[in-house]
Amino acid sequence: MSRRILHITDSLERTGLASQVLLLSNGLMKRGFDVHVASLSDSREMSDEFRADHVSTTPLGRRWLLDPVALWKLRRLMRRLRPDVVHAWTSDAAIFGRAAAGSAGASKWIIGQHRIDPWRGSAARLIGRRIAERASQLVTSSARIRELWANRDGMPIEKITLIPPAVHALRASDVSRGELLRELHLPAEARLIGVVGRLVPEKRVKDLIWAADLLRVLHDDLRLLVIGDGPLRVQLEQYARLASDLDHIRFLGKRSDVWRIMPHLDVLWNASENRAQSIANLEAMAAGVPVLASDTPINREMVAEGETGYLISLVERSGRADRARHTDHIFNSRELAAQLGEKARRRAAEHFSAERMLEAYSHLYATVP
């Protein structure tokens, strides 16, 4: 059985992908695997969490596509570790890892693809396809991405393993709802809507601010909590001042304690174009929080329409109105909110458990040709 695994990922920033690498690495080590993680960037945002789980990490500090210093660092790491399997989690990680390994790389390579990148040029796509063709196995967390990989890029479907993402049962918050509201300087009767993620165009947070302002007509006690940071933050704060105010729309920035806040949300909003699966959606479901997500093929793999939450059109006007309408129903019916939340928790446990993902990857590493 292959026991020494080297993961290569883009960064250790607090992203859904990095959280999956951490969750998997921790579980593999408990099963006796020797696990190491190399990140292309020098970001150390989640380094403490990897260290706490005794997972060895090596930031490569890559400055450009084929940075020679970073290549040398990775080549030296691979020669020292001599991993049984190299698992590159993204196309960039695969291209860089192969360049570092040369012809002397590990005999078993697994390449992952967990997001849709429509902006990648034809040259980058061609290189990625050539690298993927040489891999021992391909893996993705989304049926939609598996379909694109096969139909658009010509990869053999039987070579692509589908392993859904995972989430732990969220630990209980260390504060009560009342304590959280006081901590955030919010009214005791506030209804909480969460938005979690990087503030970039594809997340469409502006649509959510607009929808929240529509909903304020019926529920002036709502508070939209925007958790995350990114290049659009200043622009979005300015927009919030114009469309609503910074009392009803709160920007909490990047936080490592989402687990404290999530169980106290009344609903989680997601308006993303969803080129990748949202781990925030899964965390909300695990916490028993209804999710209102954009109606995309990837979100349909997570959210069961009308059972664990609702899927909202990406068409701006109708989408905003539908989001406000469904949230109004949840606010007005404790029975509906409890029903959606319980089914969401059950779906997360049954279909997206950490144990299920760990079993699938352990089998993949053991049987990769």
Q: Describe the largest sheet.
A: 7 strands, parallel
Number of strands: 13
β-sheet strand percentage: 15-25%
CATH topology grouping of the largest domain: Rossmann fold
Distance between the termini: 11 Å
Task: Quickly name the level 1 CATH class of the largest domain.
Answer: Alpha Beta
As an assembly, this protein is single chain
Helix content: 40-55%
Characterise the protein shown here.
By secondary structure, the chain is an alpha/beta fold. β8 (191-196), α8 and β9 form a beta-alpha-beta unit. The longest helix is centred in the last third of the chain and has 18 residues, at 334-351. The mean pLDDT is 91. α1 (16-30) packs across α15 (354-367), α4 (91-101) packs across α5 (122-134) and α11 (279-286) packs across α14 (334-351). The strands form 2 sheets. The protein has a 7-stranded parallel sheet with strand order 3-2-1-4-5-6-7, sandwiched between helices. Strands 10-9-8-11-12-13 form a 6-stranded parallel sheet, with helices on both faces. It has 2 domains: 4-166 and 353-367, Glycogen Phosphorylase B (Rossmann fold, 3-Layer(aba) Sandwich), CATH 3.40.50; 177-351, Rossmann fold. The protein starts with a strand and ends with a helix. The protein is built from 15 helices and 13 strands. It is elongated and about 60 Å long. 44% of the residues lie in helices and 17% in strands.
